[in-house]
Amino acid sequence: MSNSKMDEYLQQGIHGAKQTKPDERRRFLTTLRERVVIALTQGQVMKKGVEPQVEQMMDENPEAHLYLNGNISYPYLSEYIKAAEKRGIEFTIVTNKDYDSELGLVLAHDYAIDKEDIYLSNKPNPIINPVMAKQKKGLFSKWFGK
After folding, report:
1. Which domain holds residue 58?
2. What confidence tens digit (pLDDT) does each residue in 61-117 have?
3. At 64, which CATH number?
4. Pairing of β 65-69 and β 36-41
């Protein structure tokens, strides 16, 4: 065995196997961006109640895995854990003491799906929020489109 191969073997024994895209894996709570169905920031996870879009994605992707940021207080995570358990979705609480991801929740597959828009939409959805859909348009809607 050559010296470089021996050194590589020893390094893997000491530090573990080399990981692809380590920065991306830290940000997306151990998974890769290409596998993500939906992602929420820590602030979005800490809002009261489970986001309806997350429940919808769980229903549409029952074989996905839920990753939760372990740096968030457990009472906030418990609502999402209950929603996952109700649907039979496996979950992992990920705690990285060296890096605190801005993401609080990631629902992902174990294979690439390359979904373009993975972040929770803050736009009102008429299906989810019928009150917003029925609001009257303002006086200047003719000119400003609102």
Report:
1. 21-122
2. 999 999 999 999 999 999 999 999 999 999 999 999 999 999 999 999 999 999 999
3. 3.30.1330.30
4. unpaired
